[in-house]
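tool_call: predict_structure(chain=1)
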Amino acid sequence: MDNLTIELKLNERVNKLDSNDYDNIHRWKIVESFNKGAVDWSRRQLHGTNSHKTGDEQSKRRIDDLQVLLRPHTLIMDKEDCYYGSTNWPKDYFEYKRVSITGKTECCEAKKGWVLTLVEEANIDVILNDTLKKPSFDWRHTIVTLMNNTVKVWTNNEFEVPNATLTYYKQPTRIQMLGVSDPYTGDISTVEVISEFKDDIVEVLIDEAVKIISGDMEYMTSIQIANTSVEANN
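tool_result:
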């Protein structure tokens, strides 16, 4: 859906058509509210705080709606004591999905079949000393932690990690309107950037933007209508 249609639909839902009581919404505000609404909506779907209580890939709809945000990222790994740490991080990172690796010892290399479990950094010492949970080249299993925008693949110094790939959800692309001030940088946008979501989701995101704008204006009726529409279409 193009930005002109988004603007038109949003104004129709916020304004009182007969009186045009709220007909003074700046275009940059439409951009900002739509982009914030996209982030708010995406977080709710990933965490399952929606009307159906379904989160990341817990239903066919969640898979279909959010797959556009999934991205692979090849990690550059440096060896440290007991683990390999990544030195590069995706700039548009939004939420962790998984890490895949290849492992290697002096005698052989395992390119497939690895199972990696994301665990808490606080429990590393316990896990590394647990016979059933610690990294194992023979069983093709290891653990992953995240800290300071770094992926740590733990090896207990038993094997090497020559390759690693992070699969993650990226930040929703911010729409931009040509000739309109970008609320995030203050610069006038020189390009037109449309939403990456399919049209039915954009319709929901328009209602998200209406909620935000109506809240700023303390227009409670519009907030209630938009919120009901958003949840009914999840």
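agent: Helices lie at 3-14, 27-47, 60-66, 124-128, 199-216, 220-232. Proceeding to next step.
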